[in-house]
Design a protein that fits this description.
Layout (H helix, E strand, L loop, with lengths): L8 H10 L13 H9 L9 H11 L30 H12 L3 H27 L6 E10 L6 H9 L6 E10 L7 E10 L5 H8 L6 E12 L10
Antiparallel strand pairs: 1-3, 1-4, 2-3
Helix pairs in contact: 1-3
């Protein structure tokens, strides 16, 4: 068992092949096993050994906190594929120390519990950060122009109808009446709104607004702007 000489191309190739379907030397998180192998490698593996190089760079980021990593360092020959001869010089001595520790039986069980606890803590931290991470949502500011049937249409009722349309991704803003032309009493109703693009479209708004056909003749989009500022609600206050 082992990787062979990790300072040789052959040993690095064995290491890269071993990591082809693994993220770490042992288990599912950085441990003293990774540090033991990392310290036996003289430097970054070549680029063509992509699995070994990715692992090396990842473990290197834990150098400053290696003392806090779980596990107990074992002889280098205790890690790696079983069909590779251990050529590490310290193998015999460390192996004897490990055998002495195994006589008590409890160390591995305690270590397993510790690894499990740390893994669960890190998973919980990851899920917490993931939940707090802001989701990028594209929004648009739209100015709608709603045309009544005639100058006798109850415009207050028309506005009430429009604002009655509700959705989590829709916020109504300011509104006003706009004269259609000089010398005419007919006024159109204009209202601003902000929508989430993936949830509410102009077709949906037109369908719902024109459904109030007792007061609404038609609706058009007078202006449309994408919103870049995340504080998009402030524009409507």
């Amino acid at each position: 068992m082992g990787f062979g000489d990790l300072k040789s191309p052959t040993g690095l190739q064995v290491l890269s092949d071993y990591l082809a379907d693994k993220s770490y030397i042992e288990g599912y998180m950085p441990s003293q096993a990774d540090m033991a192998v990392f310290e036996a490698v003289s430097g970054p593996p070549p680029a063509d050994l992509c699995h070994a190089l990715h692992w090396y760079n990842h473990v290197k980021s834990y150098e400053k906190e290696k003392a806090r990593l779980p596990g107990v360092k074992k002889a280098l020959g205790k890690y790696g594929p079983a069909n590779v001869e251990d050529t590490a010089e310290s193998g015999a001595t460390d192996s004897k120390e490990d055998d002495d520790m195994d006589l008590f039986g409890s160390d591995e069980e305690e270590e397993s519990e510790e690894v499990k606890r740390l893994r669960e803590e890190r998973l919980a931290q990851y899920e917490s950060k993931k939940a707090r991470k802001q989701t990028v949502v594209t929004k648009s500011s739209i100015l709608l122009d709603v045309k009544p049937w005639d100058d006798e249409t109850d415009m207050a009722k028309l506005e009430e109808c429009v604002r009655s349309i509700q959705a989590d991704s829709l916020v109504w803003g300011s509104s006003k009446l706009v004269l259609v032309g000089y010398g005419m009493e007919l006024k159109n109703f204009q209202i601003q709104c902000v929508v989430e693009d993936d949830e509410v479209g102009t077709d949906t708004l037109e369908e719902k607004i024109t459904a109030f056909d007792e007061n609404v003749q038609s609706m058009v989009m007078a202006a449309f702007n994408k919103i870049q500022n995340p504080l998009w609600l402030s524009a409507l206050r």
